[in-house]
Amino acid sequence: MFVFGPHNYAEDSEEETETDFEDDPEALLQVNFTEIKYIYIIRRREECERKARRGEMDPRLEYTFQLLIDATGLTRHEVMDYVFEADMLDEINQLFLPNMRTKLMWFYQDVEDTDHQVVTEPKAGTSRQLQGASIRSQTTSVPVMKKKLFLTDGWTVPLTGICIYIFRTNTVKQLPEEGFHGWTVPLTGICIYIFRTNTVKQLPEEGFQKDLYCGIIDAQRIGLVTTIERIIEHVFMEALAHPSPDAEDDAVNCPMVKNQLLPGLRSFCSTLRVCEDVCDQINLFNDGKYLVCSVTLDELKEMAKKQEFVLELEERVKMWIKKLSEILKESDQIRKESDSSGPQDELEYWKKRGAQFSQIVTQVQATEVQRTVMCLQFARSKMFKEWKETDYKITYCYNEAKDNAKFIQTLEKNCHSLYLDDPVKMQESLLGLLQTVRLIHTVSQFYNTSERTSALMVKITNQMIETCKEYINCRGNETIWTQDRQEIKQKLNNCIMLNKVYQKTYATVKNQQMLEGDNNFNFSENYIFGKFNAFCGRLGKIIAMFDLIEDYSFLFQRRMEGLLMGEALEEAMQKFEEIKGTVMNKKYNYLDHRNSEYDADFETFLWKIDDLKVNIANTIEMNFESVWETPQGITFLTRFEMISDKIPLTKMDEKHDRILKYCEKEVDRIVKLYRKQKDDPPVPRMFPPIAGRIKWARSLVHHLEELLSSVTSHHILKTLQATVDLSKRHKAAENTLKSYENDMVAIWMNQHVWEIDDCLKRHLLIICTEQQKLTVNLHPTIPLLIREADLMIKMDLPVPMVALTLYVKQDHFSTVKDSLQFLIDEFTSTVKSVKLEVRPLFLPHLAVLTNIIEPGLKDLTWVDTEWKAYIKHVNDGIESFKVLATRVHDVYTNRVLEVLDSMQNVTLHALPPSESEPWTVDHFCDSIEHACRSSAIELNRKSIMVEEAVEEILNLVKKARIDVKNVDDEDLFQEDESEDGHTEADSTSSQQQSDWSLVWECFEKPHLLLGGGMSKAMQDMVKGAVSEMRRYYTRKVIDVLIKVTRQSLDAVRKRFSMIEPCPDGPVFILNSVLMIPKVAIQPTLDDIQEVLILAGKNIAAVSKGVAQWCGGKPRTPQKNSAWKKLVGPSNVLKDIVSRSRQNVGKGLPRMKEEDFRTRRRKFYRLTTDEKPAFPFQAKNFYNQVMENKEIIKTVSLLSTCTHDMKQDMTAFLATWRPYNVLWRNEKTPRELLNNNLSEFESSLRKHSELDSRLSTEPDIYIIGNCLAVSTERLKIGLITEIKCCTHKIGQAMKKKYKREMDYVYAVVGEMERKLDKPIRDLDDVRMIMDTLKKIREQEVDMELKIDPIEEAFNVLTRYEIDVEQETLEQVENLPYAWNKLLNKAQATQCKLLDMQPQFQDELRQNLDQFKQDKIDYCHEYKHAGPMEAGLAPREASDRLLLFQNRFDGMWRKLQTYQSGEELFGLPQTDYPEFGGENCKLIKAEKNYLAFHRRTILNLAKSERN
Questions:
Q1: pLDDT of residue 1227
Q2: Residue of 539, 430, 532 lying closest to 491 (CA atoms)
Q3: 1483 domain-assigned
Q4: Straight-line distance from the first to the last Cα atom of the chain, in angstroms, rounded to the nearest whole number
Q5: Which of 616, 822, 1133, 1149 is 20 to 30 A off residue 1092, Cα-Cα?
Q6: What is the pLDDT of residue 127?
Q7: Looking at the structure, do residues 456 and 416 belong to the same domain, yes or no?
Q8: At what angle do helices 1472-1504 and 1433-1464 cross, to 10 degrees?
């Protein structure tokens, strides 16, 4: 498989790639195809990964990927790389489709990589092209092995690593036989395979794992044969032998699987194990030498004559004999076998033994071995004889193993049942198995010894035990404690039964006569069956333990039949659980019969159980020691007998005697009790006297019968002699009680008729003097006789005629009594339900109602037939009274009380809510005015509603009629109408509570009106009830007005109180402004106080809008202008605010002039804005409200509520004093230039601190929890001042230090220019030396200038003062420029030191030359100079100029040379001649100048002339 990747293209150089593509176009196409394929793979993989992240990947593919990850140990990313690079996805999908692939197989192993490692040996070449050609010609490719995962069919590539397989079998057509030639390819690694069993239908996405078979073959670490053997044995055989519960019934019950397939697979696995062990053995005769295999017989004889060669062969044969002897010793030695080895191990041993010796025989027949032995035979070596003996032993062992394996092979068919079946089915094959063993013992040549046969029988026994263990433990999946108790006991019994059948079958086979003269089939039964017997003994102990646990668990579940309870039961159960836990919580194997720990634990378990039995028995005996002398003794006796089989309870005979003695005492006790209580017996509850006595006597008889029946029904007690005596005594007591019952019946039958007639002639109703209420007048004798008759009939006893008549009419008496009782209850409840406030109005109606009830107390009796009409008449009156009360109550509750309550909820003030922003003063004024106006209207409206409701109540009471037959009660209310004309609000007095107590008592005790009617005092009260009703509720309205007014005033006062701070937040929002040099608050506290006073007056004046009641008369219209005259204009509060703002403007200088038009428009709006007029009533409740002391007190407190805030306001203004520094001691820009750096920095720092402090200042200051001072405008003003001052100082500072920086740059630039000048002569050296001297002199000054400049601009940057970027770059480069100058100066100095010798030599030469030039100059000046005699003036002047110029040049050289002497430390040379010559030249120059001046003047005169 060839894999392309992006890394392949990056390894080669671009030049080589282009060259190769130009030479080979096919390579270019191949690369293009590779790139397209790689892009396709990448896109497909990204799509698959996106689906995987979204959870949309096919679960079948996900299952396959996970299988590959688990098998190979690769990461998911690496597996998906292999899958997509090799394009395996389509082939994997084909496995899931019908009629497509049936298997998939991946190999993960080392394969040859497609990339080659290049090893070159370059040679020298003449050119680059030839060298490259040489390198290409000498490159060699070395294959590189790399682990890869690839899909294969299993035929082409041998397996050396891991194989993953998935397969599904095709049930439609048979697999071709020629397909099995693929087994010729050796498997040396790991094979992974996938197959499916059915390809007809497509695999579902859910549950597809059930249709696939997958596995892993690791040929490298485990081995091919071992892996296949493990898969067959632990996977397929396990699945076939123990199918899952959801498997099909046909697959579970198929007989061919149990009888043929599983035995065949077992045999095949056994063969594979033998093959694996044999194949790993090495060739004993292969010592790596080939000495005689290629020689002829004659040459062999010649070689036998060589002594050295023969000795070498003898050593060789000796080594072979030694190796063979070690193998032969195994036959003589006793084999070490485990206790669990079975007959299959015996068969495999002899198979491996026979195969081993078969290999040895084959190896002996090899040419090298035969020629070696033949050579020793020719040489007549003693070693040949030893070889012959060894060869005989080999042949014998080979025949023995072959014969034993052949006979035991016949036993394998019968042994399958030992491994595959359970103990129940295993019993069927025991006979054939033992007969086969006897046949082997009889016929076999080598296996007929008692030792080997008994060992084989022991192995059979071992396998039976192992199978039983697996059967009990469900193949290790369960324990004896985790399974159902009945199922595990059945399994244990089956195993025990198998042992019995096994021994019985052995005895049967032993007694059979197979052949004459055969060996006796008789072995040590203890040796053969000892383990199985011990194992079954262990099983028996487990069963016994199970039985004990079940028995006691059942008893504890039933609480020992109720004999053990409470702490004793819990303690016993806890102890039992502990005992059970000592056995159940062990870690050892309970089925291992060789483990003695269980035996000790079992003995301990029995001992503890016995101890628990004794403790429980003692506890029960002690707890129920006294129960035998109680009625429950026989019941507990039965329970004792039920648990006596498990719990050792003693003294049962004594318990029988105690029970019988108790029964005798109980009979005597009942007889004594009867004699004692027969005159006044305890009758049952709700029983009349006679019926109760009879019932008491019958209960005693029943108790005696129950006692005797419980004794006679017990199987032991009824046989005792004491029981016969008990029966006799019971008979005598029963006769006594029967005679008592007959006496009571005789008394009952003798009843007197005249007593009943007196009871029936009573009136229906009566006033009970004790209870002070109206009751039903039914004599108790009537219901008593009815109850007696009822119980007598139920007890089947005779009833007299009088009682029987009453019993027949009991429905009549019950109906009349219930009707009267209901009438009384309804009358009482209806009268008491009338509310206290309206009871005076209902008193006449109550008197009428009592007159209707009165005939029941005077006229009607219990035998009168008009009782129904009477009850109906009274009920109608009560109903009319109830209707009237209901209507009045509805009006009173819904239209009086509810409206009064709603009036209490009216608020006369307006304040900002707790979570909202505070209001301005203007908004507060508008809100208060609006609230007072709306609340006045609302209160007046509701007051009128209350008045209308009261009048409606009065009208209802006046017009109501309870009984038209009685006297008209309207006259009682007509006489007081003249008194209602006065104003109710003028009278604050009310009727005292004691005056109405008589009325209220009549409603609580209405029987007081029966017979007498209303008294004169009550009639007077009723006449004044109407006017009192009006006055009472007028006062209620006034109280409500006082309450709401006080609540509003208190609410406003509390919001402005410093003593009782309110958590609702501030009310007013004030503005703090900057008016240099002060901070002011707008509006002031005095203005706020004035606003609050006027707000309180407005709240108190709301009651002027609530009209007084008119006492039922029509209302007169009112004038709308009255409120305006009394209250004044509605914009008073805003006038106050306007005046406060004007006062502030006059008292403090303004920062900005306000526009005149704006102010005029504002004042015009305030004076001309008209609002709705406040309601005003001519007759109102204002005086009554203002007379209240609490209202007056609250208004006075409201007028002083801002006095305590002045201190906080002063403290607020004091917090802004630190900012006065901004406008105090202000300097001009010129004065600021004189400041130093520290003064600048301190000023800027102070301004920054003020700015930082200003940012931390809150935007709102709360004063007294009621005023919020906004600092927004003040902060804006202060920030502006801080920025102005900071900018001013920063500009001065920047200007000052910018000048100093420019000076430093000028000095540095000038010195750099001088130092950059090339050094050509001593003048240049002198100039540079002067420059270096200046640098050294100014170094300290410059450093003192640069640091402040840097610090100054750092300060400017730190305090965010605008500085040009160019200036900042210059500041940053300033130290660099100065250091650069210092470095250049140092370099120049070093350069001068290097050039010093050259210039010194040149100086000496120049001095020598200068001396000569000086001599020549002096000589020429004396002899050919301007002072020579006879020269014309013109010529003399010209010479003078020449010599003067020459002298100047020499003078400059002299100066230079003298400086050089000083520079190099040479002695100074003086030239006095130059001083004289210079004077001469100066004089001559003056003379000639005067001459020229005169000549020029003369020429000018001549020209003018």
A1: 76
A2: 539
A3: yes
A4: 128
A5: 1149
A6: 36
A7: no
A8: 150
